[in-house]
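Subject: Type II toxin-antitoxin system RelE/ParE family toxin structure
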Amino acid sequence: MEERLLKTGWVTKAARKARISDSELSKAIRQVAEGKADDLGGVWGSNMAKSIKYKSDAFEAIHTSAKAMHEIGTIDKETMRSFDESCLVSPHALGPEAIKALRESNHVSQPVFARYLNTSESTVQKWESGAKRPSGMALKLLSIVQKHGLQVLS
């Protein structure tokens, strides 16, 4: 008999965010039904742990507790952001030479590099000259390109 997995919109969105495939979710549900697991926390926890980097195990415990409190509404978004800043690892800053070397190692021009990063050519020029420094999402994208190559963004 073919197994069908019916998911609510919330489960679909959460599974996609945690990078959990339908087959992994089906397997976890089957284990719960067979009494081999207490809950679905294992599949969620193992995939979420891959994407979030903490400064230490202690910070992971603190952040996990704060996140649970935020989900039930006992702490607000602003407080959660401060926990994020305190507990999560930030990407390392890249200097102008490192950004230029990264672009050149991927064999692309400034306009092409800018398009991959969803920014302007002038921004890439300013990063490479040292007039501006990437921050936030741009810095995270640069660290991803540094680790996995530019093809991961295509």
